[in-house]
Amino acid sequence: MLKSHDPANKDRFAATLRTLRLMLGLLLLIVSLSCAREKVVSSCTDETGIYTYAAYPIGTAIDYEALRNDSTYRNLAIRQFNSFTPENIFKAEYLHPAEGVFHWTEADSFVNFCLANNKRLHGHTLVWHNQLPAWMSNYRGTAAEWEQLLKVHIQTIVSHFNQSVTAWDVVNEAFNEDGTLRNSIWKQKIGPGYIEKAFRFAQEANPHALLFYNDYNLESNPVKRKSVLALLNTLKSRGISVHGIGVQMHISTTYPEPSQIAEAFQEITSNHYLLHVSEFDIAVNPQGKTLSSGTSFFSAQAQRLGSVVSHYNQVAKRYQYGITFWGISDKNSWIRSFYNRQDYPLLFDDMYLPKPAYCTLIQTL
Ligand code: XIL
Predict the structure, then answer these.
(1) 278 lines ligand 1 (CB under 6 A)
(2) Does residue 145 have an active-site annotation?
(3) Once rounded to an integer, what is the mean pLDDT over residues 322-333?
């Protein structure tokens, strides 16, 4: 029989105590973690989807690879959003890889996916200085030949998709921050009139499509915005259809001020343009610091999102084309790879779980 003062017995007793303490600690950790997760999810668990709360379309950029290969991503896209913008596969390098060659396979299957799931398709983008195929960047020709290239590019694509695409970002990012025209390959080869021509070509190919000009910093830079408005107003005065403006809205938790955003919305809609918040994300780490904890900036992000959405709610209904997020989960966000930094700019975390910004969105819509 073991006696209480037996040293072996004492050791065993101490070991049992340590195990019990460890188990209790683990139990507490599990309970607190599941409570924390419960708090984020349960306050806004949503089986019906964000868009059902909204008076206007709620969209996302779609990463075609993820849509095809990742069923969690696909289900989330279908359930939460009712407007899809192809993140890459409608860009020139994908659709028009060689002179006279158009590649429709993925784009067509994406169109069918949108039709089958009753999602609006926002076409992005016809004329841009980035993601051009090499043959186009290296093309040698006169201004007239370049204009013909632009026409064939736009009209082949717009006609191909015809009415399955509701709207097009006809021209993307054509202005500098100081309000002058970017010296893009299009401006160099065709001259500043390429923007007018692009809208005209798109309109001829599909007179039913809504035609947008899309750019970044329009929410924060009044100089750039005013130049864009001046040019688009001139086009309209010449009878060219320009229906809307895409304000990309790649913002951060601290910049710009909500009042600047309100002013931008006001100015664009008082000039009678449909307003598309077209590539919404909210960076939490614009300086690219090493982040230690992931919670305090999520509430700042949620607050910032709430303020943008409240301002958008104030826009007259006839100008609300919708709000499109530039991705679904932080895992797929372009910010990480493009800027090579740690960031969490979207509504769902790396595990596809809803973040505080998601809850705020549902509460604000
Ligand atoms: C980005 C995509 O998200 C990335 O996957 C790609 O590598 C580069 O382009 N403004 C735009 C979008 O108009 O087309 C860009 O998309 C992001 C900035």
Answers:
(1) no
(2) no
(3) 97
Are the C-beta atoms of residues 217 and 177 closer than 8 Å to each other? yes
- How much is the CA Rg of the chain, to the nearest whole Å? 25
The encoded tokens of residue 177 equal 């921050």
pTM for this structure? Answer: 0.89
Residue pair 260/220 in contact (Cβ under 8 Å)? The answer is yes
Q: What is the pLDDT of residues 71-122, one digit of tens each?
A: 999 999 999 999 999 999 999 999 999 999 999 999 999 999 999 999 999 9
The 10s digit of each residue's pLDDT in 234-277 is 999 999 999 999 999 999 999 999 999 999 999 999 999 999 99
Reading the block at residue 145, the tokens are: 């030949």
Q: What are phi and psi of 105, to 5 degrees?
A: -50, -55
Instruction: Indicate the DSSP class of residue 290.
Output: P
- Ligand 1 contacts CB of residue 334 (under 6 A): yes
> Is 279 annotated in the active site?
yes
Q: Specify the long-range contacts of residues 86-90, CB closer than 8 Å, at least 24 apart.
A: 86/61, 86/62, 86/110, 86/121, 86/123, 86/124, 87/61, 87/62, 87/63, 87/124, 87/326, 87/327, 87/334, 88/63, 88/64, 88/131, 89/64, 90/123, 90/124, 90/125, 90/157
Three-class SS of residue 40? helix
Minimum-distance ligand 1 atom for the alpha carbon of 326: 3
Instruction: Retrieve residue 253's tokens.
Output: 């938790």
Please state, in angstroms and as integers, the Cα–Cα distance from residue 60 to each residue in 33, 315, 360, following that order: 30, 20, 17
DSSP code of residue 287:
T
Residues 142 and 149 sit within 8 Å (Cβ to Cβ): no
